[in-house]
Amino acid sequence: MKSKKRLLVLLFLIILIAACAKEPIVKEKKIAEETCKNECEKEGKYCIEGGYIECGNFDIDSCLEVGLSVKCPENSYCVNSQCIKKEEQPSEEPIIEPTPEPISPSTTCQTNLDCDDNNASTVDKCFTESGLCAHDSYVLCQTNADCDPVKLGFPAKCYDIGEISACLTCSSDDDCRLGYCQQEPLNRRKCISRLKGQINVGVIEFKSLDTQFSNLFYCDEGGSKMLRSPCFENSQIIEEHNFLDVFNNQDGEIVFDTFIGEQHALSVYYLPTYIENQAQKYGITDLSINLDVEGPFDITAPFPEAEWTTPIGRPVIGSDKLLEFFTEEINKQNIDTSNYDFVFILFFDDWDLKGRETKFTSTANFVYTFINVQTSGPPGVTDDPLEAMIHEFIHLFEAFDKYIEPCPRGNYWSCCKDPDGLVEPNKIPKYPQNKACLMCGGIPLNEDGESQAPQDLFEVEICDKTAEEIGWK
User: Fold this and answer.
1) How far is residue 191's CA from residue 385's CA, in Å, rounded to a whole number?
2) Mean of pLDDT over the chain
3) What is d(CA 130, CA 148) in angstroms, rounded to the nearest whole number?
4) Quick one: how far is CA 210 from the chain centroid?
5) What are the residues whose beta carbons fall under 8 Å from the beta carbon of 341, sequence distance 6 or more?
6) Per DSSP, what are the bridge partners of residue 236?
7) Cα 390 to Cα 367: distance, rounded to the nearest angstrom
8) Phi and psi based region of residue 193 (left: phi greater than 0; alpha: psi -120 to 50; beta: remaining)
9) What pLDDT does 95 receive?
10) Alpha carbon distance 269, 115 (integer Å)
11) pLDDT, tens digit, for every residue of 137-181?
């Protein structure tokens, strides 16, 4: 009798443990399901007004994403997922297809070459996560004016290719000052830039008419010194600095001696120093970044409406809308960006000081990199805009993110990839790590995916896999 009771108790415990073990997986799946949102209505490649898109499920969630969005040039419209010149069709009105075309003919592709349809006027693309092929037409053109970067999302010119003319970023290596011209799936050819040699970077700063900049204080807190905004009550103010003066300090940093060691308030001019120091670790000694700062210029026009919000409530405006908005501001204020190889657009956002919604989340495309700069707290110390700037800048040199979203190992929104997202992947014990990889962002604390934010850029490294992607290894 006693043995039967023991057996029943043991069976109950096994069931209970099994149920508990499944709980984190359910939570993780629930996070992904609750946070994803369809970006388009139906699967396939089909015409929309002004161009065409490709819609499908290209990642691990259950929602539809836009895999490709093409705008047809002026005097043309979309027919059968291709941009057709108006004079080639009797109809003067855009044609909207009622049903999408199938994406594939192949469901087993691994590379773009597997999707070659032997058609010189299409671009062949393999979505490796879904194993599906897409065949995308060139953006046709007659002159360079048809290749508007605001409409395309990348800088391009009109090149003759056989019997057609198309918008491409390059036709040969001579068109690429910082790299070489490479065959690409989405726009046929593009310049692959290498983070070497001399690079001219422009930083164009914007703000609202009433943007508030915080004051930063070097505080004596009863014998211990700290840089804060503001000082604690009953603390003595040793020095006072305006946020904008610190952020645009041409020396690159202001160093304060505090009770926890040196504290660095980094400015935007520290960006070349950081990247050049990281390059030297990999034996790259010919890199020289020239950085110019213009502004801040006042913006009076309302920002575009957010398309969605992040899990922590920050609004997201697509890079195409930001490109259109800031290009109009640059033209309106007669700002010349022609001498720069790369351009950062910075907006000083005082949302936390004035209790209003932040304008947008930092993002980038092949024309500009858009950075939202929070105007409270010491720059380069908290909510670091410099880390975001360098992260997005490195993307332009073919570097990929080193985090997974959502985290498959624990109940976290994201976590660093192992080993590519770890500064010391062979460290024993592996966790906790001591620094963060730039393209992941957090310092991993355990194998479940938990991490903490770095204190400043001195705790952030360009890791080996990223160095390989940008041509340093």
Assistant:
1) 27
2) 78
3) 32
4) 28
5) 177, 178, 193, 199, 200, 201
6) 220
7) 16
8) beta
9) 41
10) 45
11) 567 788 888 888 777 767 788 887 666 677 887 878 888 777 788
Based on its alpha-carbon atoms, the radius of gyration of the chain, rounded to whole angstroms, reads 26
Burial of 43 (0-12, 13-18, 19+ CB in 10 A): middle
Rounded (to 5) percent helix, strand, coil in the chain: 25, 30, 45
For residue 210, CA distances in Å to 204, 229, 352, 374 come to 18, 20, 14, 14
Which pLDDT score, from 0 to 100, does residue 25 have?
32
DSSP secondary structure string for all residues of 214-250: -EEEEEEETTEEEEESSPPTTPEEEEEEEHHHHHT-T
Beta strand segments in 49-163, E: 51-56, 65-71, 76-79, 82-85, 122-127, 132-137, 157-161
State how far the Cα of 234 lies from the Cα of 243, in Å rounded to an integer. 22
Inter-CA distances, 149 with 73, 128, 154, Å: 11, 28, 5
Residues 25-51 have pLDDT tens digits of: 333 333 334 456 677 777 777 777 777
At 401-430, the pLDDT tens digits run: 999 888 888 888 789 999 999 999 999 999
User: What is the enclosing helix (H) or strand (E) of 27?
Assistant: helix 2-35
Question: Percent of the chain, pLDDT > 90?
Answer: 29
pTM of the model: 0.66
For residues 354 and 450, the model is more confident at 450
- Cβ-proximal residues to 458 (8 Å cutoff; 6+ apart), any chain: 264
φ and ψ of 401, to 5 deg: -65, 150
Residue type, 112: N
CA distance 288 to 275: 9
Phi, psi of 327 (to 5 degrees): -60, -40
Q: Answer whether 376's CB lies under 8 Å from 214's CB.
A: yes
Structure confidence at residue 215 (pLDDT): 86
Nearest in space to 276 (alpha carbons), one of 186, 421, 381, 390 = 390
Contacting residues for 37 by C-beta, under 8 A, at least 6 apart: 63, 308
Residue type, position 283, single letter: G
